[in-house]
Design goal:
The chain has 362 residues and is mainly beta. The chain contains five helices and 25 strands.
């Protein structure tokens, strides 16, 4: 059997059944490949913001589970419900089902978190803290800010930066008096505005190197009790190990602590600098250096510098302090034995000497 294609302009083309089957097969293959190649580009992607969520086979009170997705997992949105509360998604394991939209964050949120992590990749850790409970990592220091990644209770975090925001969002404007009172009658006295309440936030970096903002009261500083007990009611804002010293068969760390007033919303990140060194003979920490009051801002840093043949390599730390004009200036210090001294920059005038006696930390 032959199929003859007739055209008015061109002579007839004779097609055998075998050629027709081959042509149809190629056409079907190209159609399938074309659909598969173009389908992911057309579908909207999103990321799971819940710790874990169940995929449903239907939007109803009674449903069957078709899969499970976890925090940070990427999914494709296949369709949305009419009321906008649910979306049918496909996971990376090709599991499909309905999921509440409130458990999803868009590409814009994911990309913003990626950018936040890149911008703070080189910021030195100011302290190690533990999450008190499961926490949302926010894009900004605000309860209303977008969130995506979640932290588990007890997870170790690096603290990078501190910020303050108004608690509960912006305060409402005072309500004007009724029109009758404005027309000449006695105006009721207006209540005094409530004082603005602030809450502190920390920009944290998790073990996966993802960055986000969490409430400061929801993390606990991981500071040895032998040092933390000398905070004297102040809030520990940064902890650095400057070096370690020998004590019989062990090495004991010596610390730099930056402290602040025990309240949220202060204009400075810290107002006190303290260095603790270890007294091996008495088996306790002692205050080698204390500077207070200061107006300091994070981040601070610590490391090792080489001071030549005379002093060799010594622990150093740098902090940003605001002067009387409001300008932030970097100050550098070195620890030589149990003595802390300023490291002056070229052309810098030495500060006036102040008597200081080494004493037990208290």
């Amino acid at each position: 059997m032959e199929v003859i294609a007739v055209s008015r302009r061109f002579p007839p083309i004779r097609l055998s059944p075998r050629r027709i089957c081959i042509a149809l097969g190629y056409a079907a293959l190209l159609a399938v490949l074309g659909c598969k190649a173009s389908e992911p580009d057309k579908l909207e992607s999103a990321y799971v913001s819940a710790v874990q969520a169940t995929l449903r086979d239907r939007v109803a009170a009674v449903y069957n589970r078709t899969g499970i997705v976890s925090n940070g997992e990427r999914v494709q949105i296949l369709e949305r419900s009419k009321n906008g509360r649910f979306a049918r998604v496909r996971s990376v394991r090709n599991e499909e089902g309905w999921l509440e939209v409130r458990y999803l964050a868009g590409d814009d949120v994911f990309n913003a978190f990626q950018r936040l992590s890149r911008e703070n990749a080189t910021v030195p850790s100011q302290a190690i803290a533990l999450a008190k409970s499961d926490l949302n990592m926010h894009l900004e220091p605000s309860r209303d800010a977008e969130h995506l990644f979640q932290l588990k209770q007890g997870e170790k975090l690096e603290l990078l930066k501190r910020a303050s925001s108004v608690k509960g969002g912006k305060q409402a404007a005072p309500v004007p008096p009724p029109a009758a009172m404005q027309a000449g009658k006695a105006v009721a006295p207006q209540a005094a505005p409530l004082p603005v309440a602030y809450e502190d936030w920390w920009l944290v970096r998790d073990p996966q190197k993802r960055c986000g903002w969490v409430l400061s009261r929801m993390v606990d500083m991981d500071v040895p009790l032998e040092v933390a007990q000398y905070a004297e009611g102040q809030r520990i804002m940064a902890v650095f190990v400057l070096n370690t010293v020998a004590d019989k068969d062990k090495r004991v760390p010596q610390y730099l602590l930056l402290l602040n007033q025990p309240r949220d919303g202060t204009p400075q990140d810290f107002d006190q600098i303290r260095v603790f060194t270890w007294n091996a003979h008495r088996q306790h920490y002692e205050t080698a250096y204390r500077e207070h009051p200061v107006e300091g801002m994070l981040p601070a840093s610590a490391g090792i510098d080489d001071f030549g043949a005379r002093e060799g390599k010594l622990p150093v730390f740098s902090v940003m302090l605001r002067d009387r004009t409001g300008t932030l200036n970097e100050r550098k210090y070195k620890l030589n034995g149990v003595m802390v001294r300023r490291v002056l920059a070229a052309g810098e005038t030495p500060p006036p000497r102040a008597g200081h006696k080494r004493k037990k930390a208290s």
